[in-house]
Amino acid sequence: MAVEKLTAVIIESAKKKAEEIRLRTDEIISAKRKKIENEIQNRITEHDIQITQKIAQLKKQILADQELKNQQALLQAKWDIISEIFSEAYQQFINSHSYYQIIQDLIKKFVDSQSIVIVNEKDYAVLKPLFPNVQMKVSQTLTGGVIIEKGHITMNYSLDLIMSRLKKLYLADIGKILFSK
To answer: Which residues sit opposite 151 in a β-bridge?
Structure first.
């Protein structure tokens, strides 16, 4: 009977120890589970913050890009208006009487027997009868005006060059007139 009692005590003691181990293990597992859940929540929060910041940054970039495109479109529209003004001025000038008067004055002033006068086809038809003794060539690329060659010297009075210089010279002033508030 003593052995049975001893066995019962050992079994009871083992049951108590097993229960203590189970309770301690449950506590450890529960604490680790809480720690892991907290870590997961912290990481989720960090990622939420990062995502929110990235979204805000992306929105800012998209808005800046759109603003840049708007500014570019506005500048292009302004440039188109200025180009149209110069184009209209160009057309008015080449269709005016003073256009041929200026070309005639240039020929009279700078052309001698060694000179070659380069003009476009339309101007050639008007100028050649007026200056039959002047050597003239037709340029397919010249849109208007005159180029006078004297040996190694070239005097370029082409309308493209003159209009380009005028555009550079008066661009800021025309822009102020058109677009100042």
So the answer is: none
**Per-residue pLDDT tens over the stretch 123-134:** 999 999 999 999
d(CA 75, CA 60): 22
Which of 171, 177, 181 lies closest to 86 in space, CA to CA? 171
Residue 138 and residue 121 in contact, taking contact as beta carbons nearer than 8 Å: yes
User: Which domains are seen in the chain, by residue range?
Assistant: 96-179 (3.30.2320.30)
- Can you tell me the distance from the alpha carbon of 164 to that of 177, in angstroms, rounded to the nearest whole number? 19
Whether the full predicted model's pTM is greater than 0.85, yes or no, is: no
Dist. CA 120–CA 157, nearest whole Å: 12
**CB-CB contact of 146 with 158 (8 Å):** yes
To the nearest 10 degrees (0 to 180), the angle between helices 121-130 and 97-110 is 60
